[in-house]
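Residues and backbone
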Amino acid sequence: LGNFFVFFLSEIETSLFNISPILPIDTIVLEIEVIGNSKEWTNQDIELVVESNKELSSLKMGETQIDLANPKVVITENGTYEFTAVDKHGNPTTKTVEVTKIDKASPEVTNVENSGREITITATDNASGVAKYAINTTTEQPGEWSDSKVIKTTEDGTFYVWVKDMAGNLSIKT
C-alpha cells in the first residue's frame, strides 16, 4: 500500500499537464470473528469479543457503536446480533451471531406427589430444560441431586423439593 502517481506526457507538448493520484489498492479481504458465544447453557450474561484481521475505522452491533480499543459487548439475553465492521479503506463486512444458550429463569415445580416412601416431582423449564431433582429436610441447597424425578426417602418428615435446570437455575418448594 502507498500513494502512487501517474504522469502523462504529451509528445506535442513537453510540459506536464496532468498529474493523477492513484489510490492505494487494498487486496486483503476484511474478516471479523465474534468470540465468546456460549455453547453450554448459562444463567449469566455473556461477553462477546470482536476480532479482525485488519485495522478498523468503525465497528457496530446493530446501531450501537463499539469501542475499537476494547471491542467487547455484554449480551444479556438470547437473540440475533449483527456486527458490522469497516476497515480504514472503507471496506465493510457483516457477521451475524445467534445467541441461544442464556437461561436466567428458574424452573417451575408444578406438582409434588408422595406415595409411601417415594416423592414424585413434576417440573417445567421453558428454556434449558429440567436437569436434576432433589429433596432436603432444610432450605439449604442439597448436596446430592438425582436425574430421576422420583426420589425415594428413608424417613418421615417435611421435605423441601428442589429442581435445577441445565443453566444452574434453582427452584424450591415445600
User: Anything to note?
Assistant: The mean pLDDT is 90. Residues 48 and 170 are 26 Å apart (CA to CA).
